[in-house]
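Quick one: structure for this chain?
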Amino acid sequence: MARAKRGPAKPASRTVRKARARSPRISPADALVALTDGFDLREFLTSAGTGKTVVKQKAGATIFRQGQPCNALFYLEKGRVQLSVVSKQGKEAVIAMLGPGDFFGEGCLAGQPLHISSATAMAASTLMRIERDTMVRVLHDQRALAEFFTAFLLSRNSRIEADLIDQLFNSSERRLARLLLFLSDFGKDGKMETVVPKVSQDLLAARIGTTRGRINFFMNKFRKLGMIEYNGELKVHSSLLRLVIHE
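Got it. Here's what it folds into:
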């Protein structure tokens, strides 16, 4: 029986685990091939087939819009995706930023008829679009996929809880530091200095729940303290982690 490579992350406010709470990941370099009675988990999630379509999107492209029919879910193989919602008054909020290994649009599995958020590619992205009926059938037939998908849902639930705790009890400065660490996949594969994909200060402000002016102030502060550097690209240094775990 094949198992997910990573188990659910534990929510831990103001700790490195909280900053690095991640979902299970699959990439060609991982060589993660789960075989159960001939079932290849990686192939299912990355290769087109019956009820599955590989979708490639440029940065800024809309994957689906809030209110559109919800009849498929997506697996993000490469790139970055943001989820956002718009109120009746026209106010927009960014509710999630996703990376490789994340599923989204899975509300269709629970009978959700319409998307309750919009999904937009933050960078050039490669996704697998899986029809609802196909996903339901394979989840029922293949334990490897069921275990992997369950591990993802548990991990994301922990991440949502950590985000809520962060929003309720931590300052916007610390929330920004944690988000930058998350976007950079900080500490993954032993990397202690990583580059953040291009993201605007407006988007960071929307995700953190503050103003662009405050984001600019904190970014300049982080740079002066040597925690980050940016000149065309944003690089995160290990010293930024101290701000997240400092009590």
